[in-house]
Design a protein that fits this description.
CATH superfamily: Acetylglutamate kinase-like
Helix content: 40-55%
Strand content: 5-15%
Number of helices: 8
Order of helices and strands: EHEHHHHEHEEEHEH
Distance between the termini: 42 Å
Largest sheet: 5 strands, parallel
Number of domains: 1
CATH architecture: 3-Layer(aba) Sandwich
CATH topology: Carbamate kinase
Structural class: alpha/beta
Number of strands: 7
CATH class: Alpha Beta
Bound molecules: aspartic acid, magnesium ion
Length: about 270
Protein backbone atom coordinates (compact mmCIF):
# COMPACT_ATOMS: atom_id res chain seq x y z
CA UNK A 1 0.00 0.00 0.00
CA UNK A 2 1.16 3.55 -0.64
CA UNK A 3 2.24 5.31 2.51
CA UNK A 4 -0.63 7.73 2.66
CA UNK A 5 -4.26 6.69 2.94
CA UNK A 6 -6.11 8.68 0.28
CA UNK A 7 -9.86 9.03 -0.21
CA UNK A 8 -10.83 10.68 -3.50
CA UNK A 9 -14.30 11.85 -4.44
CA UNK A 10 -15.41 12.48 -8.01
CA UNK A 11 -18.55 14.48 -8.76
CA UNK A 12 -21.18 14.00 -11.43
CA UNK A 13 -19.30 15.89 -14.14
CA UNK A 14 -16.29 13.57 -13.61
CA UNK A 15 -18.67 10.64 -14.23
CA UNK A 16 -20.41 12.44 -17.14
CA UNK A 17 -19.40 10.07 -19.94
CA UNK A 18 -16.96 7.29 -20.72
CA UNK A 19 -14.11 9.73 -21.46
CA UNK A 20 -14.66 11.51 -18.13
CA UNK A 21 -14.74 8.15 -16.32
CA UNK A 22 -11.49 7.06 -18.00
CA UNK A 23 -9.83 10.33 -17.09
CA UNK A 24 -11.04 10.10 -13.48
CA UNK A 25 -9.78 6.51 -13.28
CA UNK A 26 -6.35 7.57 -14.53
CA UNK A 27 -6.25 10.40 -12.01
CA UNK A 28 -7.19 7.99 -9.19
CA UNK A 29 -4.42 5.57 -10.11
CA UNK A 30 -1.88 8.35 -10.46
CA UNK A 31 -2.85 9.80 -7.10
CA UNK A 32 -2.72 6.41 -5.45
CA UNK A 33 -6.27 6.69 -4.15
CA UNK A 34 -7.33 3.92 -1.77
CA UNK A 35 -11.04 4.63 -1.65
CA UNK A 36 -12.85 6.38 -4.50
CA UNK A 37 -16.28 7.81 -3.74
CA UNK A 38 -18.42 8.74 -6.74
CA UNK A 39 -21.57 10.74 -7.44
CA UNK A 40 -24.29 9.80 -9.89
CA UNK A 41 -23.52 10.75 -13.51
CA UNK A 42 -24.38 14.40 -14.10
CA UNK A 43 -28.10 15.04 -14.39
CA UNK A 44 -29.13 11.57 -13.19
CA UNK A 45 -30.26 12.51 -9.68
CA UNK A 46 -32.41 15.28 -11.18
CA UNK A 47 -33.91 12.78 -13.62
CA UNK A 48 -34.68 10.36 -10.78
CA UNK A 49 -36.45 13.17 -8.93
CA UNK A 50 -38.42 13.94 -12.09
CA UNK A 51 -39.22 10.24 -12.36
CA UNK A 52 -40.74 10.23 -8.87
CA UNK A 53 -42.89 13.27 -9.67
CA UNK A 54 -44.03 11.84 -12.99
CA UNK A 55 -44.81 8.37 -11.63
CA UNK A 56 -47.11 9.84 -8.99
CA UNK A 57 -49.23 11.72 -11.53
CA UNK A 58 -52.60 10.40 -12.59
CA UNK A 59 -51.55 10.67 -16.22
CA UNK A 60 -50.50 7.68 -18.26
CA UNK A 61 -47.33 5.72 -17.69
CA UNK A 62 -45.78 6.95 -21.00
CA UNK A 63 -44.22 10.09 -19.54
CA UNK A 64 -42.52 8.11 -16.78
CA UNK A 65 -41.33 5.57 -19.29
CA UNK A 66 -39.64 8.31 -21.30
CA UNK A 67 -37.66 9.42 -18.23
CA UNK A 68 -36.78 5.82 -17.38
CA UNK A 69 -35.52 5.37 -20.92
CA UNK A 70 -33.38 8.51 -20.72
CA UNK A 71 -31.74 7.16 -17.57
CA UNK A 72 -31.09 3.66 -18.88
CA UNK A 73 -29.94 4.82 -22.34
CA UNK A 74 -27.36 7.24 -20.95
CA UNK A 75 -25.87 4.54 -18.73
CA UNK A 76 -25.93 1.98 -21.53
CA UNK A 77 -24.10 4.45 -23.74
CA UNK A 78 -21.34 4.85 -21.15
CA UNK A 79 -21.13 1.05 -20.83
CA UNK A 80 -20.82 0.70 -24.62
CA UNK A 81 -18.26 3.51 -24.87
CA UNK A 82 -16.22 1.88 -22.12
CA UNK A 83 -16.20 -1.26 -24.25
CA UNK A 84 -18.05 -3.28 -21.59
CA UNK A 85 -19.29 -6.56 -23.09
CA UNK A 86 -23.02 -7.19 -22.81
CA UNK A 87 -22.35 -10.56 -21.17
CA UNK A 88 -19.91 -9.21 -18.57
CA UNK A 89 -20.73 -9.06 -14.87
CA UNK A 90 -20.94 -5.28 -15.01
CA UNK A 91 -23.55 -5.38 -17.80
CA UNK A 92 -25.58 -8.03 -15.97
CA UNK A 93 -25.50 -6.05 -12.70
CA UNK A 94 -26.43 -2.87 -14.54
CA UNK A 95 -29.35 -4.59 -16.15
CA UNK A 96 -30.56 -5.85 -12.77
CA UNK A 97 -30.51 -2.26 -11.52
CA UNK A 98 -32.58 -1.15 -14.54
CA UNK A 99 -35.16 -3.87 -13.84
CA UNK A 100 -35.33 -2.96 -10.16
CA UNK A 101 -35.66 0.74 -10.97
CA UNK A 102 -38.50 0.10 -13.39
CA UNK A 103 -40.34 -2.07 -10.83
CA UNK A 104 -39.96 0.64 -8.22
CA UNK A 105 -41.25 3.32 -10.62
CA UNK A 106 -44.22 1.08 -11.46
CA UNK A 107 -44.95 0.60 -7.76
CA UNK A 108 -44.92 4.37 -7.23
CA UNK A 109 -47.16 4.80 -10.27
CA UNK A 110 -49.68 2.21 -9.06
CA UNK A 111 -49.86 3.72 -5.59
CA UNK A 112 -49.55 7.32 -6.84
CA UNK A 113 -47.44 7.71 -3.76
CA UNK A 114 -43.73 8.09 -3.11
CA UNK A 115 -42.88 8.10 0.60
CA UNK A 116 -39.63 9.65 1.81
CA UNK A 117 -38.32 6.11 2.22
CA UNK A 118 -39.20 5.14 -1.36
CA UNK A 119 -37.84 8.45 -2.65
CA UNK A 120 -34.42 7.81 -1.06
CA UNK A 121 -34.36 4.30 -2.44
CA UNK A 122 -35.21 5.68 -5.88
CA UNK A 123 -32.46 8.30 -5.74
CA UNK A 124 -29.89 5.69 -4.69
CA UNK A 125 -29.94 4.22 -8.20
CA UNK A 126 -27.89 7.12 -9.58
CA UNK A 127 -24.83 6.38 -7.47
CA UNK A 128 -25.34 2.62 -7.68
CA UNK A 129 -25.24 2.75 -11.49
CA UNK A 130 -22.33 5.20 -11.80
CA UNK A 131 -20.16 3.33 -9.27
CA UNK A 132 -20.72 0.06 -11.10
CA UNK A 133 -19.55 1.58 -14.38
CA UNK A 134 -16.68 3.41 -12.72
CA UNK A 135 -15.42 0.21 -11.07
CA UNK A 136 -15.10 -1.25 -14.56
CA UNK A 137 -13.31 1.89 -15.81
CA UNK A 138 -10.87 1.60 -12.87
CA UNK A 139 -10.18 -2.06 -13.60
CA UNK A 140 -9.51 -1.21 -17.24
CA UNK A 141 -7.20 1.67 -16.32
CA UNK A 142 -5.33 -0.55 -13.89
CA UNK A 143 -4.84 -3.25 -16.55
CA UNK A 144 -3.75 -0.65 -19.10
CA UNK A 145 -1.06 0.68 -16.79
CA UNK A 146 -0.06 -2.86 -15.91
CA UNK A 147 -0.74 -1.76 -12.35
CA UNK A 148 -2.99 -4.82 -11.87
CA UNK A 149 -4.37 -3.34 -8.70
CA UNK A 150 -7.08 -5.24 -6.86
CA UNK A 151 -10.00 -2.91 -7.60
CA UNK A 152 -13.27 -3.80 -5.87
CA UNK A 153 -16.82 -2.50 -5.86
CA UNK A 154 -18.02 -1.60 -2.40
CA UNK A 155 -21.68 -1.09 -1.52
CA UNK A 156 -21.30 1.92 0.76
CA UNK A 157 -24.47 0.91 2.61
CA UNK A 158 -22.57 -1.91 4.30
CA UNK A 159 -20.38 0.72 5.99
CA UNK A 160 -22.31 3.97 6.01
CA UNK A 161 -25.00 3.30 8.59
CA UNK A 162 -27.32 6.20 9.28
CA UNK A 163 -30.37 7.21 11.28
CA UNK A 164 -33.76 7.06 9.58
CA UNK A 165 -34.28 10.70 8.63
CA UNK A 166 -34.91 9.92 4.98
CA UNK A 167 -33.72 12.68 2.67
CA UNK A 168 -31.26 14.06 5.19
CA UNK A 169 -29.96 11.06 7.09
CA UNK A 170 -27.15 11.48 9.59
CA UNK A 171 -24.32 8.96 9.91
CA UNK A 172 -24.04 6.79 13.01
CA UNK A 173 -20.40 7.77 13.21
CA UNK A 174 -19.21 5.30 15.81
CA UNK A 175 -20.78 2.40 13.97
CA UNK A 176 -19.39 3.63 10.64
CA UNK A 177 -15.89 3.75 12.12
CA UNK A 178 -16.28 0.26 13.62
CA UNK A 179 -17.48 -1.22 10.36
CA UNK A 180 -14.77 0.49 8.33
CA UNK A 181 -12.16 -0.76 10.79
CA UNK A 182 -13.42 -4.35 10.66
CA UNK A 183 -14.38 -4.66 7.02
CA UNK A 184 -12.26 -2.17 5.07
CA UNK A 185 -9.01 -1.63 6.93
CA UNK A 186 -7.54 -5.15 6.56
CA UNK A 187 -8.22 -5.10 2.81
CA UNK A 188 -6.99 -1.52 2.38
CA UNK A 189 -3.77 -2.50 4.15
CA UNK A 190 -3.26 -5.34 1.70
CA UNK A 191 -3.58 -2.90 -1.21
CA UNK A 192 -7.21 -3.26 -2.27
CA UNK A 193 -8.73 -0.18 -3.93
CA UNK A 194 -12.43 0.38 -3.28
CA UNK A 195 -14.88 2.18 -5.53
CA UNK A 196 -18.02 3.19 -3.70
CA UNK A 197 -21.07 5.46 -3.77
CA UNK A 198 -21.43 8.88 -2.27
CA UNK A 199 -24.77 10.25 -1.08
CA UNK A 200 -26.32 6.99 0.14
CA UNK A 201 -26.40 5.07 3.39
CA UNK A 202 -28.57 2.57 5.21
CA UNK A 203 -30.54 2.43 8.42
CA UNK A 204 -30.04 -0.32 10.98
CA UNK A 205 -33.24 -1.91 9.64
CA UNK A 206 -31.66 -2.10 6.18
CA UNK A 207 -33.51 0.75 4.46
CA UNK A 208 -31.58 2.88 2.00
CA UNK A 209 -31.15 6.55 2.97
CA UNK A 210 -29.66 9.65 1.35
CA UNK A 211 -27.63 12.37 3.04
CA UNK A 212 -29.26 15.27 1.16
CA UNK A 213 -28.51 16.85 -2.23
CA UNK A 214 -24.81 17.20 -2.92
CA UNK A 215 -24.21 14.68 -0.14
CA UNK A 216 -21.37 12.83 -1.84
CA UNK A 217 -18.77 15.23 -0.46
CA UNK A 218 -20.14 14.51 3.00
CA UNK A 219 -19.99 10.74 2.37
CA UNK A 220 -16.37 11.06 1.30
CA UNK A 221 -15.55 13.02 4.45
CA UNK A 222 -17.23 10.43 6.68
CA UNK A 223 -15.41 7.58 4.96
CA UNK A 224 -12.10 9.50 5.13
CA UNK A 225 -12.60 9.89 8.87
CA UNK A 226 -13.56 6.23 9.27
CA UNK A 227 -10.43 4.91 7.53
CA UNK A 228 -8.19 7.56 9.20
CA UNK A 229 -7.26 8.95 5.80
CA UNK A 230 -4.28 11.28 5.51
CA UNK A 231 -5.81 13.05 2.52
CA UNK A 232 -9.34 13.66 1.28
CA UNK A 233 -9.50 14.90 -2.31
CA UNK A 234 -12.67 16.37 -3.84
CA UNK A 235 -12.30 16.29 -7.63
CA UNK A 236 -14.56 18.11 -10.04
CA UNK A 237 -14.48 18.40 -13.82
CA UNK A 238 -14.98 22.10 -14.59
CA UNK A 239 -12.75 24.52 -16.55
CA UNK A 240 -11.57 26.22 -13.35
CA UNK A 241 -12.68 29.04 -11.07
CA UNK A 242 -14.58 31.88 -12.78
CA UNK A 243 -14.83 35.56 -11.87
CA UNK A 244 -18.50 35.00 -10.96
CA UNK A 245 -21.14 32.28 -11.22
CA UNK A 246 -21.21 31.39 -14.95
CA UNK A 247 -24.75 30.05 -14.58
CA UNK A 248 -25.93 33.55 -13.64
CA UNK A 249 -23.55 35.67 -15.67
CA UNK A 250 -22.77 34.70 -19.26
CA UNK A 251 -19.60 36.82 -19.47
CA UNK A 252 -17.92 35.27 -16.42
CA UNK A 253 -14.25 34.71 -17.21
CA UNK A 254 -12.03 31.94 -16.02
CA UNK A 255 -9.19 32.98 -13.71
CA UNK A 256 -5.60 31.91 -14.38
CA UNK A 257 -4.58 32.27 -10.79
CA UNK A 258 -6.36 32.91 -7.51
CA UNK A 259 -5.26 33.02 -3.88
CA UNK A 260 -7.00 30.98 -1.21
CA UNK A 261 -8.25 34.19 0.40
CA UNK A 262 -9.77 35.46 -2.86
CA UNK A 263 -11.37 32.08 -3.59
CA UNK A 264 -12.83 32.01 -0.12
CA UNK A 265 -14.26 35.53 -0.60
CA UNK A 266 -15.77 34.55 -3.97
CA UNK A 267 -17.37 31.50 -2.39
CA UNK A 268 -18.86 33.62 0.39
CA UNK A 269 -20.37 36.21 -1.96
N1 LIG B 1 -26.00 12.71 -6.75
C1 LIG B 1 -26.36 13.50 -5.59
C2 LIG B 1 -26.87 14.86 -6.02
O1 LIG B 1 -26.92 15.15 -7.20
C3 LIG B 1 -25.24 13.62 -4.61
C4 LIG B 1 -24.00 14.33 -5.10
O2 LIG B 1 -23.79 14.40 -6.29
O3 LIG B 1 -23.21 14.79 -4.28
O4 LIG B 1 -27.26 15.61 -5.19
MG1 LIG C 1 -21.30 18.12 -5.86
Amino acid sequence: MNQKMIVSKFGGTSMGDAACMRRSAEVSLKQGSNVIVVSATSGTTNLLIELAASAQKKSAWDQTEIILKKITESHLKIARDLGISTVSNTAVELNLLFIELESLAKGIHLLKDCSAKAFDYLQSFGERMSSLLFTDAMMQASRKEKATKDVRFLDSRTILKTDDQFGRARPLTELVINRATDILMPLLRSGVIFVTQGFIGETLEGNTTTLGRGGSDYSAAIIAEAVSADILEIWTDVPGIATTDPRLCADAKSLKEISFKEASELATF
